[in-house]
Design brief:
By secondary structure, this protein is an alpha/beta fold. Helices cover about 40% and strands about 15% of the residues.
């Protein structure tokens, strides 16, 4: 192996830490080899294979994408192959112009970057350009990093060379500017990207127009932009338009802004109950506004201090800054948290922290962000992103390869910087700002996997130290390389007027490294190298200036994370301990994440113990009760979902650990359980400010009307212990059918789900236990009617044999298929399917509150009581009218035999992959289904991404 891209500010000057630097041969970079061998092309070092990519429609099994005979490296997963082929190969399928090999895709990008570097004077010699191309090819081929999606879409094609995924627009207080905003946002959406904007310059509805009338206010103009986004998304390439709308906390209309999306949730319910067609895609759903954007309130340090001290806060007019009214800061903060509790919006951005780390304050303040809140910079600007795969730098002996990481970072920064020189932009204003300030966004993925593989808990001091030290080194190398590039091709155009501020922020970043507390050899080596890198960066920057106003951030890395075969995206922890691996011949297999056995070895477990623990995880989806696993090691395997989840503040503390080492911010949503209170959200938002975050978004499970109910607690197996023999005692039952009497009480409910109407009839035993159900839909004699009749009989017989109703509720709620959507039932707002609705209705009618509470199924009155801090169990039904003991079971069963069974498997064991996923994720259904392939999407930052086909919910 040889060494990678590097330069120095003077001839012969060597890099420390064992990393050798090439010598400068005149103006331009010299590029040394690290991963490639002279005379051997990277493609010739690996084995290639042909594969067929066939992707089917989840609804009817029809093929929605097919390309056979594509060529990929043997070590690339089937999942990565499918995503790259369907998303990034260019040309019409079936034509000669269609790309069919990964070689073509990488060559299209790498050769364009090389030419851009040569055309704009980045390389000293043609040989350096050739080495650059080969090194770039090797890194992409071996999944060490990836550019953001627009690069793969556009670079090297006949389309405009659009390389940026993140945009920030600007709106002034004039109709011309507002109409320009609509147009510019539409152009960005059309290209599949997203944009953010701050509307605080638009005068408030309490202010006057020059004509003497009242202004419309920013919230009014949001309606037009929302309608535009909704229209463009329906005909575009993305599933939804990605946009961010920001309003300053001192704007007089901030209270109205805070309530916009929460009010629309109420509107959906009211219109649905009045008989309007509020189904998804229904005729009347277009009346629901503000659903295409993420909303955020930009809070100042002054406001947060007022919240802390319980004082008033002034709201100021936009025309002259005069105080219009004073509000109670705590009351306004409570409104913000309450709206977020109700519908997850708005998020919060901390203006003081953002602008304290701003390198270009003389040019203008940072007022907004991109849709996922990781890119924060000047108005009318853009940022292109790239992310490193951290697991590639973890050696077999579990040491972190600091030297290779340094070389990879400086190489990626060089490539990203070159791309700005040849890139196209959607508007001239964005192009001018981006070329003048050259904002970059290097980041990483697979942090969660790296921590687990290293035997560290995500929510731990040593885990946060490891993450902070990696981020600090990445940031330091990025700016050191930026300073070196400034010596070759010049500092960014806006540097001269911002030199003092830029240098101040660089010193803040350098000082933040000194605050990182190290716990092990890896983070100690990373911090030592980061200190050395900053020393050289500051020295070089003092002489050359800096090539880039910004360098680093943490993006969600959705689709590109799967392209790199990452187990975790961005800064996220592991989603779950098990996953499904696609197979070459079709189908999939359930596997335990490879990071688990590696973590167990790091924790000192023997191979026999590891095998037993992995087998337990494969069957249960979690580590609780795993044989031989010490309880103090459980936190290492905590995930974002499942039996053991990371606490909300665990996510916040991890963000706080890495934030001082990033130019931008972090795309991440802090998930809270459904039981979280408004006070919990207030605490998270307040702690985000005290810990120095730049932005924060939350999501409370099941907070949206348009989401099905979800979380259910795992049923505990009923086991008795025999002390002497220390064996499990399982009581074996033989069911006996208990028929209903000839004359029995019953009730019929009419329902409508997604426009499909039907009837549910439920009959009870004399003691009120459910014993029979009939589901009627469609006309008699139709296939659907026959299937529903047969299903009704099967359920009824099982109930009479003693199958508990709650078991059916557990299995059939959240089952998804059409028809689905809005219902006419005030207690069940949305249903994922007719079956989902029917068993929720049966649960509400025949299960006691305690059981339904565990299943997450409550009446509207109970939810309102819960929101008001009252006891939900005390509302709704009259306790004297219902015998809950009788309702808890469907029918009595007769015990006929009892025996001792040694080593009997627990009843908690799962019997299928579906049951395992339920065990791992609970019944969490808040993640939407992919509109392309139907696979449940998973969180990636503040967006969702499909593991099946790579589609995202708005962020690239």
């Amino acid at each position: 192996m040889t060494e990678a891209v590097s330069t120095t500010s003077g001839p012969g000057k060597a890099r420390r830490g064992g990393v050798v630097t090439g010598k400068k041969k005149g103006k331009g970079l010299t590029v040394d080899r690290v991963w490639t061998t002279e005379g051997v092309h990277p493609y010739d070092e690996i084995a290639w294979e042909r594969r067929d990519v066939v992707m089917t429609n989840w609804r009817d099994g029809s093929i929605n994408f097919e390309q056979r005979g594509v060529e990929f490296p043997g070590f690339w997963s089937v999942n990565a192959t499918n995503i790259v082929t369907s998303k990034y190969f260019r040309g019409a399928v079936g034509t000669e112009q269609r790309e069919w090999s990964l070689r073509q895709l990488i060559d299209r990008v790498a050769k364009t970057y090389r030419k851009g570097g040569e055309d704009h004077g980045y390389f000293a010699t043609e040989t350096d350009a050739q080495v650059f191309e080969e090194e770039l090819t090797w890194l992409l081929l071996h999944q060490y990093f990836s550019f953001n999606s627009p690069v793969w879409f556009n670079v090297g094609t006949a389309s405009p060379q659009q390389v940026s995924a993140c945009f920030i627009l600007a709106v002034d207080d004039s109709m011309d500017s507002i109409l320009d905003w609509y147009k510019e946002e539409g152009l960005i959406f059309k290209g599949g990207s997203g944009a953010g904007v701050n509307l605080s310059r638009i005068r408030a509805s309490k202010e006057l127009l020059s004509s003497g009338g009242n202004a419309s206010g920013p919230v009014s103009f949001m309606r037009g932009a929302d309608a535009s986004a909704g229209t463009i998304k329906s005909g575009g390439a993305t599933r939804r338009a990605a946009k961010m709308v920001v309003l300053d906390v001192d704007h007089p209309d901030v209270a109205e802004f805070i309530q916009t999306k929460a009010r629309e949730e109420d509107k959906i319910r009211a219109l649905r109950d009045a008989g309007f067609d509020m189904d998804l895609g229904g005729d009347d759903i277009v009346s629901v506004q503000y659903q295409n954007a993420n909303n955020s309130v930009r809070v100042s340090d002054e406001f947060m201090a007022a919240v802390q001290n319980g004082t008033d806060f002034p709201l100021r007019g936009r025309l002259d800054g005069a105080e219009i009214e004073r509000v109670d800061a705590k009351d306004l903060f409570r409104k913000l948290a309450t709206a977020a509790w109700e519908c997850a919006d708005p998020g919060i951005q901390y203006d003081g922290t953002i602008n304290d780390w701003h390198t270009n304050p003389e040019t203008g303040r940072i007022t907004a962000s991109n849709p996922c809140s990781e890119y924060m910079s000047l108005d009318n600007s853009s940022c292109n992103l790239a992310s490193l795969n951290l697991m590639k730098f973890l050696r077999d002996d579990d040491s972190f390869d600091v030297a290779k990481f340094v070389k990879a970072v400086e190489f990626v920064i060089t490539a990203m910087e070159i791309s700005i020189s040849f890139a196209d932009f959607p508007t001239e204003k964005i192009g001018e700002t981006t070329r003048a300030y050259r904002q970059l966004g290097i980041g990483y993925a697979n942090l969660g996997a790296l921590l687990m593989a290293s035997g560290m808990a995500y929510d731990s001091e040593d885990g946060r130290a490891y993450a902070a030290s990696i981020t600090a080194l990445m940031n330091a190398v990025s700016y050191r390389r930026s300073a070196e590039l400034a010596g070759i091709v010049g500092a960014y155009d806006g540097y001269a007027r911002n030199a003092s501020a830029h240098t101040r922020v660089m010193r803040k970043h350098a000082a933040a490294v000194d605050a990182v507390k190290t716990f092990g050899a890896n983070d100690k080596a990373l911090v030592e190298e980061a200190v050395a890198e900053w020393r050289e960066a500051l020295e070089t920057g003092e002489k050359n200036g800096w090539r880039n106003a910004q360098a680093s951030l943490l993006a969600p890395t959705g689709t590109i994370g799967f392209m790199m075969d990452c187990d975790t995206t961005g800064i996220e922890p592991d989603l779950a301990l098990v996953k499904f691996k696609k197979l070459v011949g079709g189908g999939s297999m359930q596997i335990v994440n490879g990071t688990v056995p590696r973590a167990l070895r790091n924790l000192g477990y023997q191979e026999e113990q590891i095998e037993a623990i992995v087998e337990f995880i494969a069957g249960n989806g979690h580590v609780v009760g795993a044989p031989g696993l010490k309880e103090e090691h459980y936190p290492v395997f905590d995930c974002a979902m499942g039996e053991r989840t990371i606490a909300p503040m665990g996510h916040v503390r991890m963000m706080a650990a890495v934030q001082p080492h990033l130019s931008g911010a972090i795309s991440k949503t802090v998930n809270l359980p459904e039981s979280a209170t408004i006070e919990d959200i207030e605490d998270v938002y307040f702690q985000g400010w005290t810990l120095g975050l730049k932005a924060l978004a939350i999501y409370r499970d099941n907070c949206k009307v348009g989401q099905p109910l979800s979380v259910v607690k795992k049923e505990e197996a009923v086991v008795e212990e025999t002390p002497r023999a220390e064996i499990e005692k399982i009581v074996e039952y033989r069911p006996v059918r208990k028929r209903l009497p000839k004359k029995r009480a019953s009730e019929t409910v009419s329902f409508s789900v997604g426009g499909a109407e039907g009837y549910l009839t439920a009959s009870s035993y004399p003691d009120n236990g459910l014993g029979e159900v009939f589901f009627k839909m469609s006309k008699q004699g139709s296939t659907l009617a026959g299937i529903m009749d047969a299903f009704s009989v099967a359920i009824s017989i099982a109930l009479q044999y003693g199958v508990p109703l709650e078991k059916y509720v557990e299995k059939f709620t959240n089952m998804r298929f059409e028809p689905a959507g809005m219902t006419d039932d005030p207690d069940i707002r949305m249903a994922a399917s007719v079956i989902d609705y029917l068993f929720r209705r049966l649960a509400l009618d025949f299960l006691p509150y305690d059981t339904r509470s565990e299943l997450g199924i409550l009446t509207s009155a109970e939810r309102i009581a819960e929101a008001n801090g009252e006891d939900p169990a005390s509302v709704g039904r009259d306790e004297d009218e219902v015998d809950f003991a009788a309702l808890a079971s469907s029918a009595p069963i007769e015990k006929v035999v009892e025996k001792i069974v040694e080593n009997a498997p627990s009843r908690a064991n799962v019997g299928s992959s579906t049951e395992l996923l339920e065990r791992v994720m609970g019944k969490a259904a808040d993640a939407p289904l992919c509109m392309t392939c139907g696979t449940k999407m998973r969180p990636a930052g503040s967006c969702y991404v499909c593991e099946g086909c790579g589609s995202t919910s708005g962020c690239s």
